[in-house]
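Wed. Picked up where I left off yesterday with Gfo/Idh/MocA family protein. The coffee machine is broken again, so keeping this brief.
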Amino acid sequence: MGAQLTEPVRIGIVGAGNRGRNHAARYDLIPGAEIVAVADVDEAKARALADECGAESYASHREMLDGADLDAANVCVHATLHADIAVDALEGGTHVFCEKPMAGDYADARRMADAADRTGNRLAVQNQLLYTKETRAAKALAEAGELGDVYHGIAARSPGFSFAGEGDPETTRLGARRRGTPYVDGYGSPPFVRQESAGGGVVLDLGSYTVGQLLYLMGSPDVPTVERVRGETFRTVPERFDAGGATGDDGEASEYARRIEESGYDVEDVSAAFVTFEDGSVLSVRTSWSRYLDDESSAVVGTKGGVRLDPFEYFSTVADVEMRASADLEEYLFRQQFLDGERGRVAYESGLWADPLYHWVGSLLGEDDALPTDSPPTADLALESMVVADGIYRSAELGREVTREEIVESARGSDTPE
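Structure written out below (tokens, as returned):
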């Protein structure tokens, strides 16, 4: 299958839950995208979403791949299921867009990347932080040499987002995640906090966003290669509520305690790590669902300047004067989108410019020239992010720093090659 398609891009969604419904609503806004199939083991959910989209429903992804005429498959199921579905789709001649994290562990992520390389079909992984105006502006400064040689990144952004109901694509930004644990604190479902379905906790959930973003900003032109990782993970939420016996004023177990116990909560909710890359640069990683501290900003620092991403600030020395500069990112975004041509203008006016699905559809339509010239290699970034995540888990388990070779060889119990 060639990379350039004739409109529309015919898409099959695997997973009719919250993420699947959210992606479907977003595709409905994107020119050139058409949902033609929905698959879910919960056939009622598949039928309901398919009916809304004017599509066919299927009881499994294999039935969908066999029965539907697809250009692309969109994987919106639990992380530990991503690899099998993505590999089946890629080997079946279909391009794949996958929700984050890329997979439940590095071994599965590697299988997905290898399948894409082997078949020549495109693989992309969700990460909306790669397309924000802050990321685009920071990348522009780095590419222009205004940061010098980048030697330190900080992946620490922790605000939460509340998704609208019924898969609506609108989100509301929340504050620092002092109390933002999936399901336990009121949103999401139990599989988010179970190792079996999620593959891990906050390291995979939020870390897949921030680590991928910083790998993109620190890489020029290639994605930085992890050399070694030292990390620790913490499980603080169950201790806070004493799931075995916490009670409210009425003597009954608290709702928080019930949710912890009923969900089978067994993942980390806080992590801190330090990553060293082969080129000598380093990355500090802090992820948290629930930590008693103000919000932190991610940042990238070089020998000539540094950028804090949220709020966006540029630090440097000009004419021997120490500078701490803000930026008009709205004006920058407006100009860049209109320079991208008609599709860029439409994207700006409709608010699609930051949606990874918009860029994904554009790339499949062969409109790469109308997309940002520094369009991120999302699958490569997600794969190296999985090396970082597995490294954090492995390091925490062993209580010491681990090398890339140890991470790849262990691959969470797999013999998957590098």
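Quick read: The chain has 16 helices and 17 strands.
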